[in-house]
Amino acid sequence: MKVKQRSVCQTCRTRKLGCDGKRPECSQCVLTGRRCDGYQSDWTFVLQNDHSSTSSSVSKQRDTRMVTPQEKREKLVISGLSRNRFQVTGAGVEASLLPGPVLNPTRPLWDDLLGLVVECYIPEDEMTSITNFTDSKRSRICGSWMAVLPKILGKSDRDCVLRATIRALATSILSQNPQMGGSSLDRVESYDAAIQAVRKGLTVSGYAFHAVFIAAIMCIALAEIMFPDSAIAFTAHVNGIGHILQTQHVEQYRSGVFHALFVGFRPILIVQAFRCRQPTFLASEPWIRVPFSAYRLSPMQSLLSEAAAIPSLLQQIDMLLYDPCQSSSHDVTNLVRYFVVALDNLQNWEIRLRTENTEPHYWSVSPDTQATGASLHDGYIWYPNITMANVYTHLWAFRIICLSEISKLIYLPSFIHGNQLSSWQFDFNNIQEDMIALPKQICMSMEYLIQDGMRLFGPASTFFPLQTAYRAFQMDEPRQRENIARTEGIVDRLIKKGLQSAPHIVFA
After folding, report:
1. Whose CB has fewer CB within 10 Å in the chain, the N or C terminal residue?
2. Coil, helix or strand for 124?
3. Residue 454 contacts by C-beta under 8 Å, 6 or more apart in sequence?
4. Which residues, at least 6 apart from 249, have a Cβ–Cβ distance to it below 8 Å?
5. Is the peptide bond before 24 cis (omega within 30 degrees of 0)?
6. C-alpha 241, offset from chain centre
7. Calpha distance 332→438 (Å, rounded)
8. Where, by residue number, does the polypeptide cross the bilayer (predicted)?
9. Residue 399 CB-half CA count within 13 A
10. What are the residue ranges spanned by the domains of the chain?
């Protein structure tokens, strides 16, 4: 007689397919995008050494029975997760007390994975604004693209790629806290499955530009920053997103899901252009104007529009410095002039921002030395919200880069020194002073961005400003060793937050 195997899910049993028996969903169903109907079982699990009454035992059996996949909620949950299964803390995600010793409570159901990712990534003060995000509103933070994930998760076979990458991101988050039962093995297995799903999606005609595929690459890119030594892979995913976005006309990103995804990816792509010192297509006039023609830009997006052309200047200076003997004084002087203009544009942009919003954009605070262990002479810069924190830390980073490049150029033999500099209305004597003051302001802002309520988005948004500040300090290393040590201490805290790639990105 053939024995009915309990390790085959109901979906594979009905379709007469091979099944690996993985729980809560088998690999066959995950990769094909089918709904896994789970594993039929009448077993119950009873706690050992239970000497209570019969009625109490029955009650405990009911509480401790296996939770089957049929009991999953059909609707994806964004809010309420931390109140039910998980508690998000500064150290990561912790398991809350469950009503009963449910079998293997450390493996969340699929319906909770998306909620877990959103709640662990989006700052708590921004949760309401992103869940209510519509085209008529401007997104306050660049991470609001996660709010559209439930909208693009349907029931087609395409979903298996996005589901696989969301699972990889979720297990990467869970693996940072042993109390949740997440393991490095789970993280690696989920990551490998996600990479395989993405590769498979690339072979399907017309699939690479589908919204779920673009979101999937973004999810896997975020998972990368949870791994050590993953800076190169992260860069590859970001470059891939840029190539995919360019395959469609810019009008595609004016509204709807694609606009929300574009808003989320644009900052990463422009920052990547700064890191690679290469021009970006996002600096062209149509890509600045059209995607935001439906409604007003957020302050961060407006700043990025102002700074998007600077990477092109960085490429020009690299070409010039590659063979400085061949560069003419005219070339060098023009490049200096371009960077001075870029600095003036950034300053004028800040003036316009302060005119539009007269409330304080940031202020200095004294540290709680008992709580933070900070030195008495240390101070912090505090902000009304994370939007302003991101705006000013990136604004100062852009200024540092311009000042650094000007400093390189004016010491070239071919640069013309003389009375003509006075006509530029730029004080070249204060460059070195500003290049130390601005990095200090960035470091003073880190306490705000890495506080517990900022979840993962706040700490992850520190990478580029912190990298810029660190490089500025290194240019004057003998006198900036204390600030370098302070920056390294901040990176150590980012690692403890779960961002294992922080040292490889910041110190690269």
Report:
1. N
2. helix
3. 123, 386, 448
4. none
5. yes
6. 14
7. 25
8. 207-227
9. 27
10. 1-35, 108-316, 328-507
Q: Which run of H or of E encompasses 119?
A: helix 110-121
**The token pair that represents 191 in the structure block:** 């990551």
CA 375 to chain centre: 30
* CA–CA distance, 482 with 478 (Å, rounded to integer): 9
Q: Share the mean pLDDT of the chain.
A: 78
Tokens coding 172: 């990467």
Residues with Cβ within 8 Å of residue 128, at least 6 apart in sequence: none
Q: In angstroms, what CA-CA distances link 73 with 111, 116, 305? A: 6, 15, 42
The one-letter amino acid at 84: N
Q: Which of 407, 503, 413, 416 is nearest to 462 (CA)?
A: 503
Alpha carbon distance, N-terminus to C-terminus of the chain: 64
* Angstrom distance (rounded) from CA 129 to CA 139: 8
Report d(CA 273, CA 239) in Å as an integer. Answer: 10
Q: Cβ(310)–Cβ(344) under 8 Å?
A: no
Per-residue pLDDT, 1: 42
State how far the Cα of 332 lies from the Cα of 339, in Å rounded to an integer: 11
Which amino acid does the sequence have at 343? L
pTM confidence score: 0.77
Residue 348, C-beta contacts closer than 8 angstroms, at least 6 positions apart: none
Q: If one looks up domain 1-35 in CATH, what number appears?
A: 4.10.240
CA separation for the pair 43, 182 (Å, rounded): 26
- The rounded Cα 358 to chain-centroid distance in angstroms is 30
- Report the SS3 class of residue 405: helix
**For residues 492 and 361, what is the distance between their CA atoms, to the nearest angstrom?**
28
Distance CA(446)–CA(440), nearest Å, equals 10
Cα–Cα distance for residue pair 272/259, rounded to 1 Å = 20
* pLDDT tens, position by position, 228-259: 888 889 999 999 999 999 989 999 999 888 99
CB 448 within 8 A of CB 383: yes
What's the burial of 317, exposed, middle or buried (CB within 10 Å: 0-12/13-18/19+)?
buried
Residue 433, token pair as written in the block: 């002073």
How far is residue 40 from each of residues 36, 37, 289, measured CA to CA in Å?
12, 9, 56
Span of 92-101, 116-125, 342-351, 365-374 with lowest mean pLDDT: 92-101
Give the pLDDT of residue 16: 65
pLDDT of 92: 37
Task: Report CA dihedral (331, 414, 411, 350) to the nearest 10 degrees.
Answer: -20
**pLDDT score of 295:** 79
Which of 404-441 are b and which e, b meaning 16 or more Cβ less than 10 Å from the residue's Cβ? bbbebbbebebbeeeeebeeeebebeeeeebbbebbbb
140 DSSP assignment: S
DSSP-H helix ranges across 203-255? 211-224, 231-245
CA dist., res. 193 & res. 212, Å (int): 16
Q: How far is CA 236 from CA 195, 265, 340, in A?
A: 13, 14, 32
**Amino acid (one-letter) located at 301:** Q
